[in-house]
Amino acid sequence: MDVVDAVKSRISTRAFLNTPIDDAEIRSLLNDARWSPSGGNLQPWRVHVVTGDARNRLVAGVKDAIAANPFADEAELAIYPPGLWEPYRSRRFAIGEAMYEKLGVGRNDKPARLQWLLQNYEFFGAPVGLFFSTDRRFDRGQWAHLGMFMQTIALLAEERGLATCMQEAWATRAKTVSAFLDLADEEMLYCGMALGRANPAAPVNSLRSDRAPLDEIATFHVE
Ligand SMILES: Cc1cc2nc3c(=O)[nH]c(=O)nc-3n(C[C@H](O)[C@H](O)[C@H](O)COP(=O)(O)O)c2cc1C
Questions:
Q1: From CA 161, how far away is CA 158, in angstroms rounded?
Q2: Are 169 and 123 in contact (CB under 8 A)?
Q3: Which ligand 1 atom sits nearest the alpha carbon of residue 10?
Q4: H-run or E-run covering 19
């Protein structure tokens, strides 16, 4: 698969088959992803792989935590800045509405929307969960490098016929997940990622997000 094909065919998959993925395949994928770049070659990333019984225990534990305290937010970094402004606000709104349309969930159906959001905490049915953490003494520079590692994993997964969904939703349960993963005190949970095989029959997987035109994001300085 060409790199450009991988970049363009990767999507956020939100319905997975429960087909297991071999440990050897996951190891090989992560082994390749180690070659992601980072400033100063710090490689400021850690990845925690959750499969099998561990995955099921984590999902059950987070489900209990949500039932006990449905609106807890344990995110150390705000997922979005407060009072999100344009054009970001509209972009976020548009992808959300497009997703609920695929799901057949109406604009005012808050219970159904909430139920759907909870799917995040089951990895959308994926058999493998990845969690990305970094040392909390790092700052934004290194957080960006973590993103490079994650995107490399997503593209390598695509090449292998696997599907992914990056999931910052897990950050809202960072304490629960960190305890489960037994993270060291200095390790900060940033994001999760579901990994598995896409369910081709699920309508939500037909969602295709758009992108701003090039001239909105690129400025060419030529004179
Ligand atoms: C760091 C990061 C975190 C994300 N977290 C979530 C999430 O928690 N739940 C979710 O359904 N999608 C999540 N997404 C998916 C984005 O909504 C998606 O990437 C965006 O809408 C573009 O769509 P595409 O990935 O299909 O190209 C996340 C994406 C990124 C890059």
A1: 5
A2: no
A3: 27
A4: none
Q: Which amino acid is at 176?
A: T
Region of 84 please: left (phi>0), alpha (psi -120 to 50) or beta.
Answer: beta
pTM value is 0.97
**Nearest by Cα to 206 from 98, 97, 96:** 98
Summarised one tens digit per residue, pLDDT across range 155-184 is: 999 999 999 999 999 999 999 999 999 999
CA 166 to ligand 1 centroid distance, Å: 5
> Residue 22 has which token pair?
């071999």
pLDDT for position 71: 85
Pick the CATH number of 3-79+121-205 from 3.40.109.10, 3.40.50.620, 3.40.50.2300, 3.80.30.20: 3.40.109.10
CB of 166 within 6 A of ligand 1: the answer is: yes
